[in-house]
Design a protein that fits this description.
about 120 residues, two-stranded antiparallel ribbon, binds zinc ion
């Protein structure tokens, strides 16, 4: 599923910096798999963030300064602000602007084959 960019290129450069910090492979229920140039958080924000940046609470949420939201929320780290945005913009049922459901899925657990199976 392709979702158009929210039209805020100034945010992308900062998020690209965040990707260096948050390098975890994750998937979305729509089939999206985290790529080198787009994280799951970016994908979810793209899916849920409305054009007017108005959150579920009716307030406008947008990054105004480092880790600071227009609503007054200040995060201590990039992940905190991302979480704040996801919480503010995720609609009931996690249905994105494209009509698909988007929900973070945990990457499948790795069952390491080198487990020792010393049975009695
Ligand atoms: Zn906010
Ligand atoms: Zn998705």
């Amino acid at each position: 599923m392709i979702i158009g960019p929210p039209g805020k290129p100034r945010k992308l450069s900062r998020k690209q910096l965040r990707k260096v910090i948050h390098m975890t492979t994750a998937r979305c229920s729509c089939g999206f798999t985290e790529l080198a140039d787009e994280s799951l958080t970016d994908h979810l924000q793209r899916a849920f963030m409305p054009e007017d940046c108005r959150g579920n609470d009716g307030q406008v949420h947008d990054e105004t300064a480092v880790f600071t939201c227009r609503c007054g929320y200040v995060a201590t780290a990039a992940q905190g602000l991302d979480d704040h945005f996801l919480e503010a913009f995720t609609p009931a049922g996690a249905i994105g602007r494209d009509g698909d459901k988007h929900e973070a899925a945990q990457p499948p657990e790795r069952h390491v084959s080198q487990l020792s199976l010393d049975l009695p």
